[in-house]
Amino acid sequence: MKIAVPVWEGKVSPVFDTATRLLVVQMEGRREKERFTTPLHEEEPSRRCLYLKNIGVDTLICGAISRPFFEMLSAFGMEVIAWITGPQEKVIDAWMNGCLLREEFLMPGCSHDSLYGEG
Questions:
Q1: Does domain 2-114 sit in CATH 3.30.420.130?
Q2: Global confidence as pTM
Q3: pLDDT-derived band at 119, boundaries 50, 70, 90
Q4: In whole angstroms, what is the distance from residue 111 CA to residue 43 CA?
Q5: Average pLDDT over every residue of 39-65
Q6: Residue 98's closest CA among 115, 85, 113, 81?
């Protein structure tokens, strides 16, 4: 399984739609196997989503995300965990330990059930 986190200055990028770097972590169970960063050159939604699909991303952990990106990524079969904020390493550790959906990782003013009808 591969998780991806758009990053900016060591933190989750505040908006996926305009993020320019992506941290990709290959998981084996809930343990990290390897990681790499890659630039996000594609700005057009379908091309950006296709790029994530082509590099094998299963789950995207991100901050804010527009409805078109959310719906396209979901249509490609990716899980989207949005409205997340914090240092990238703490966020990845929280995801690996099954405690990412705690309030400390939520963007201010957001809730997980506010994402386009998803919980």
A1: yes
A2: 0.91
A3: very low
A4: 26
A5: 93
A6: 81
